[in-house]
Task: structure prediction
Amino acid sequence: MINNLEYQDLSEPFQKLDEDYASVAMLIYQEKELIFIKRSEDLPTHKGHIAFPGGKKEASDQSIVHTAIREATEELLIDSKSITPIGILNPIDTVEYRFLVFPIVGRIDKKPESFNDSEVQEVYFVSIDELKNEKKWIYRGLYDTDWIFNIDNEILWGATAKMVRRLLRIS
Result:
């Protein structure tokens, strides 16, 4: 277990689903930082949101883990071998779509040096210790789990914030 984080260990074979779903890659660098992206304004959904690399299942995806890794490699322009999947959180139901999003926790061995600018505007490396500081989280109160966190004048909120808080054991 990395840095006392809350996730279920993964083991192969990884779960495969026939129905539609999405997976995101919660990538941890050197057990100290979590990697986030700012989504492009040109994407059909979640324009400009702070998020984890991820997206919907494609026909070629072999599992929920494969979906997360494929999406991370496409968005961060990295080799799939640089990601080691280690865990999973319970899936999140999002407001925008009627299917589940599977958060896959993984280690990444080096920081991405670039990104796919058709999907990503910016990449952020945020200290896990900073994210664990409950005083930096603000309860906005639009709904019962409406916590936000500021990252370089951008707001981390919604399903991504919920995943982070679960991973860090913040209720």
In short: Helices lie at 64-76, 128-132, 158-167.
